C-alpha cells in the first residue's frame, strides 16, 4: 500500500505498507479523495506528536467490514465519509453524550490512528456516513470541515438580528462564513486576499479589512486564523457580553488580558468537530457547494509537492488521491 508517512516532523511517500485489516467493529475503506487542511500542515511543524499516516478529511468506498452481521455487511460498496474521533463508548465522557471528548479516543490521522493520505484506511462502522449519489467526491471530501463550521451553530444560538464577524477567510473561514450567512444574521468577514474577497462577495457577504474593524460592535466574533493577531482583533471587535468563538488551535501560548474579559463579561467558546448529517444535507440540497475552494489535486506520489503548495499563503484546498483513481 502507498501512503504519506510523517515522522520526526518530516514527510515521505512510502510504498511498503500493508493494507490494514479492520479490527472488530471496523471497516476497510478505499480512499477516493482526501483533503489537506491547516491541522495537517501544523502537524508537520510539530503541533502534535504523531508518527504514521496523517490526514482526516476524505471520501472513500467501503471494501469490507470485519463484523458479519447483516447491518454491518450492508455498508460494503457504499461511498462514505467518516467522523474522525473513534470513541470507546464506555468512559464517562461517552456515557455523558460527549464522544468527541472520549477519554480513550483515537483521532484519524492525528492521535493513535492511521490517517487517510493512503490507498486504504480503517474506521469504526459507527463513524461512517453514506454519501448521497448526487454529491460528487469533490464535494463530499469537504464534509468534515463543513461539519466543523456548523458546530458553531450547535454551540451558539444565532439570531437574524445578530451582528457577526468572522476573522479569517481561508479554507475553514470560508465555510464558516457561508454557513453563518444562511442564518440571516448580519455578517462581515475579515479577508485580506482578492480571491477570498471574491468568493465572499459572490455570496453577498460583506468584506472588511483589519484596519476597518470597529471596537466593541459585534455580538458574535469567530476567530479562524489561529494567530495571536487574529485573537487580538477578535477581542477588539466583540461587544460586552458578546460571544467569542475560537475555531482554530494556537501554537504556543497567547498573552491574554483575562481581567478585561471578566469586566466585559465575554463568553469564550472553543469549537472543533461538528455534525456530519447536516453538512451532508447542505451538500445534497446544493445550499453549499464547496468545489470553488479547490485549487488542484495531486496523486500520492506527488504528496510532498502537494503539501508545499497547501502551505503557500492564500492557497485554498489541495486534494490528494491514490494513483489508481
Mean pLDDT: 95
- Give the C-level CATH assignment of the largest domain: Alpha Beta
Q: Structural class, from helix and strand content?
A: alpha/beta
| Contiguous runs where pLDDT drops below 50 for at least 5 residues | none
Work out the number of β strands: 18
The CATH superfamily label of the largest domain reads Medium-chain alcohol dehydrogenases, catalytic domain
CATH topology category name of the largest domain: Quinone Oxidoreductase, Chain A, domain 1
Task: Name the helix and strand elements from N-terminus to C-terminus, one letter apiece.
Answer: EEEHEHEEHEEEEHHEHEHEEHEHEHEHE
Overview features:
2 domains, Quinone Oxidoreductase, Chain A, domain 1, 325 residues, 28% strand, seven-stranded mixed beta sheet, alpha/beta, Rossmann fold
Describe this structure in words.
It is a single chain. The chain has 325 residues and is of the alpha/beta class. It has 11 helices and 18 strands. The chain has helices at residues 38-44, 70-73, 92-95, 137-140, 143-155, 171-181, 194-202, 228-237, 258-263, 276-285, 303-310; strands at residues 3-7, 10-14, 26-36, 57-65, 79-82, 85-86, 106-108, 112-113, 120-124, 128-130, 163-167, 186-190, 206-208, 218-223, 238-246, 267-270, 294-299, 317-321. The model has no long low-confidence stretch (mean pLDDT 95). The protein folds into 2 domains: 3-130 and 289-321, Quinone Oxidoreductase, Chain A, domain 1; 149-270, 3-Layer(aba) Sandwich (Rossmann fold), CATH 3.40.50.720. The longest helix is centred in the middle third of the chain and has 13 residues, at 143-155. Strands 3, 4, 5, 9, 10, 17 and 18 form a 7-stranded mixed β-sheet that branches. It has a 6-stranded parallel β-sheet with strand order 13-12-11-14-15-16, sandwiched between helices. The protein is globular, with a radius of gyration of 20 Å. Helix 8 links the parallel strand 14 and strand 15 (238-246).
